[in-house]
TrEMBL record:
Gene Ontology CC annotations of this record: plasma membrane
Protein name: ABC transporter permease
Residues forming coiled coils: none
Membrane-crossing residue ranges in chain numbering: 20-41, 53-71, 132-152, 158-175, 236-265, 271-296
Keyword Transmembrane helix: yes
């Protein structure tokens, strides 16, 4: 397990050796007082006890008790610090890992499972340091010291006291393996339920609109009931292991008691030794019982560590190198891409010159968003190359690629933070005046100035306190502030009303000036001035040219889309029996 923890934390278990040493010191401070208990008992059974000797032993025991309290506090703080540091390192490693895996991995994995891994599994795993190791060290050291001491005094009673321990260990290990299977199933079920709970909360608005909140909650309720049943089954099976361990271990007390009576009655045992074994045995089994309870929870810790390891060992996108000067041209060279064994792009080739606007057009599912995703290297190509300048994107580091690209998505995500911090995301030394100037150029500044704290206003999670148009403006302002030479626009205005769309198009004009731009658009009227229009269908380029050239192709898909859009502008609702005409504007 220590080896696995080194993998999960990325460290060599720093501080663990020191904690083991202090744990052994604590065990000594717990065990040594029994020596003085023995000396006091032995003295009390003499003809004339030396009370000063007895009081001296009591004073030493008191000093040892105070020292134990101090050391125990130090051990507790160190163990928890080591555990929390391990939890921090694991969460950092998980966050770093998620940046390096392909987007396809994140799409395949249930978000609830990742959430459970980042929170619940890490919490269980950090307890290996904060609770388990310390308990094992103190218990093992104390039991060893006590057994050695008692064996020296009377090996017969010592063997009788420990007679059930070997069998208890064997039974515990066997039952623990059965519990491990249930632990894994229970953790998987909890992760599944977490995903369903997240889905229910995020979709509550839609569910209420369609009067499905009750039905969807029934599904969640069924999962909660399944977890309840599985938890009870797990507690029953997992509880048998420590219960069996405790029963067999404490069998040694009964055996020792019988042996003690037999030896004492037979005159083979001195009274002070009998009293010593009675006192020590009453304390001997307590740490073993506590250790058994912690080891019962070890199944959860181990399974959680395994789930974390699954994420940390997921395949990564190969890392490239940093390029200082990168020409902002984009070239697709015979690119094909397959996702889930389904071809998405087939032999796509085109080039975007620096400072030009390229529009991607085509039906849904034709591969437009995949092209922008391959440029941003959310995935790697199945075959062919995507190049920025003369460098394939897979040869660039993620940081280098991110520095050269700004993305504006249709679905804008804002963090639960101030508007200023959302706009300056990734900037090392943001300038307030620059942010304000960009906002005035790209946003309706009046909506920001009317907020309670202006740029310091905290937006809700995912920007819930703002409208769609306001979030989109902030997204564009964020991209302008980044000032990257390449801009990718994925349906940036598709879901907006005409007024908002016009204003955001003006903001986009500021953003794309002098940049290499690839723009996905369904409204063809927004791309009539594009330098190049690439028309896709079923993952293949079927047309390419400017607006005028493509319109002249009477049988082309682009012209069909253009005509359909013009006709759509004239639609209206009619009652039964009415006729309608579509203006030919």
């Amino acid at each position: 397990m220590l080896k696995k923890m080194r993998v999960l934390t990325g460290k060599q278990n720093e501080g663990l050796a020191q904690n083991i040493m202090w744990g052994f010191v604590e065990a000594l401070l717990v065990g040594v007082p029994f020596v003085f208990v023995y000396l006091i008992i032995k003295e009390m059974f003499t003809t004339v006890p030396d009370l000063s000797y007895v009081w001296t032993c009591c004073g030493i025991m008191t000093a040892l008790f105070v020292a134990r309290v101090v050391v125990a506090r130090h051990v507790m703080i160190n163990n928890h610090s080591l555990g929390y540091d391990a939890g921090l390192d694991i969460r950092r490693n998980l966050a770093s890992k998620l940046k390096k895996v392909p987007m396809g991995y994140l799409l395949k994995v249930d978000p609830g499972r990742i959430n459970a891994t980042m929170l619940q599994d890490v919490t269980f795993t950090e307890q290996i340091y904060s609770h388990l190791f310390s308990q094992l060290i103190v218990t093992f050291s104390l039991v060893t010291l006590v057994v050695i001491g008692l064996t020296i005094e009377d090996w017969r009673l010592s063997i009788a006291m420990c007679i059930g321990l070997p069998l208890a260990i064997v039974v515990f290990v066997v039952l623990k393996k059965v519990g491990a299977v249930l632990s894994r199933r229970l953790l998987d079920k909890v992760a599944e339920m977490t995903g369903s709970l997240m889905e229910y909360i995020l979709s509550i608005k839609l569910l209420k609109a369609y009067n499905l909140a009750g039905k969807r909650f029934s599904k969640l309720d069924d999962q909660l009931k399944d977890i309840q049943k599985m938890s009870l089954k797990h507690e029953f099976v997992a509880g048998v292991a420590p219960l069996s361990f405790i029963t067999l271990v404490e069998l040694g007390f009964a055996t020792m008691l019988l042996a003690l009576v037999y030896l004492y009655v037979g005159g083979e045992l001195q009274p002070h030794v009998a009293v010593l074994f009675l006192i020590v045995s009453s304390r001997f089994f307590r740490p073993l019982v506590a250790m058994a309870m912690f080891l019962a929870e070890y199944n959860f810790m181990q399974q959680s560590a395994n789930r974390i390891e699954e994420v940390l060992t997921a395949p990564e996108l190969p890392e490239g190198h940093w390029v200082e000067t990168l020409e902002p041209s984009i070239e697709f060279d015979n690119v094909s891409f397959t996702y889930a064994e389904k071809p998405v792009l087939r032999s796509v080739s085109f080039r975007c010159e620096p400072g030009t606007l390229t529009a991607l057009v085509g039906p849904s599912g034709s591969g437009k968003t995949t092209i922008t995703s391959l440029i941003a290297r959310f995935w790697d190509t199945t075959s062919g190359q995507v190049r920025i300048g003369d460098t394939p994107v897979e040869k660039l580091t993620a940081e280098c690629l991110a520095d050269h690209i700004s993305l504006v998505f249709q679905d804008v995500y804002l963090f639960q933070d101030t508007i200023f911090n959302n706009l300056t995301l990734g900037m090392t030394d943001p300038d307030w005046e620059q942010v304000e100037r960009v906002c005035k150029a790209t946003c309706r500044w009046d909506f920001i100035s009317q907020l309670p704290d202006g740029l310091d206003t905290v937006v809700g999670e995912a920007g819930a306190s703002l409208s769609g148009g306001e979030k989109q403006r902030l997204s564009i302002a964020r991209a302008v502030l980044k000032d990257a030479p390449i801009v990718l626009l994925d349906e940036a205005t598709a879901s907006l009303d005409p007024e908002n769309e016009y204003e955001i198009q003006q903001a986009l004009s500021t953003l794309i000036k002098g940049k290499t731009v690839i723009m996905i658009a369904h409204r063809l009227s927004t791309i009539v001035h594009a330098d190049q229009i690439v028309v896709l269908e079923n993952g293949t380029i079927i047309e390419r040219g400017n607006h005028r050239d493509l319109i002249e192709n009477s049988s082309g898909l682009y012209r069909s889309l253009w005509e359909a859009e013009r006709h759509a502008h004239g639609w209206k609702l009619v009652s039964e029996g009415e006729t309608t005409s579509v203006p030919a504007n």
